[in-house]
Amino acid sequence: QVQLVESGGGLVQPGGSLRLSCAASGSIFSINAMGWYRQAPGKQRELVATITRAGSTNYADSVKGRFTISRNNANNTVYLQMNSLKPEDTAVYYCNTRNIYTHDNYWGQGTQVTVSS
To answer: So what's the pLDDT on residue 30?
Structure first.
């Protein structure tokens, strides 16, 4: 089992920045890629960004150039730096990873990000 604990959400004005963190614990040996998803009210959960243990990244088109995902393998933490935030970025953001052996998905509890003036 892998446990994911997120932090860093909140209320920010349009154009502002936030940094999300996700700390993983448990069977760390069983995971490779970690990522962030988000779910806005009335919408499906969508991919925001992923990063492998080696540092390869992938972003949704809607956040390219504004969001940066990074990772510290020493403390099993993944970060999402969000700049130039827009009201449409408002959502609950979830940390995610997958067991490379069983393909089980693990999710954090979610952290609310609200972009509003």
So the answer is: 84
